Amino acid sequence: MWAPDHPQATTVLLLGILGMAVCQVVAPFAWVMGSRVRKEIDASGGQIGGRSQVQIGYVLGIVGSCLLAFYVLGGLAYIGFVVVVIAAGA
Q: How is residue 25 annotated by DSSP?
């Protein structure tokens, strides 16, 4: 029997794709929403589908969040490096 997809399954997938490819700021939202929606699908006992979409969005959200953290830490390191170089040159 066919089970209808969770209403937010496509949203999680799109947020995961956008968080991975375009704007990493939305990746944590895919991660959090994906976790919640995945639990709701598992608790439904097969009445709600779309778990594979949610799982993909969830994983992409994790990877995008890691990239976001990497970019933020890299930016902070760059700013710190610039400040040290300017202070040493003055």
A: G
63 inside domain: yes
CA–CA distance, 79 with 71 (Å, rounded to integer): 12
State CA 35 to chain mean position distance: 11
Number of domains in the chain: 1
Q: What is the pLDDT of residues 39-79, one digit of tens each?
A: 999 999 889 999 999 999 999 999 999 999 999 999 999 99
H or E stretch at 73: helix 51-89
Is 1 within the bounds of a domain? no
Q: What's the predicted TM-score (pTM) here? A: 0.86
DSSP letter at 24 equals G
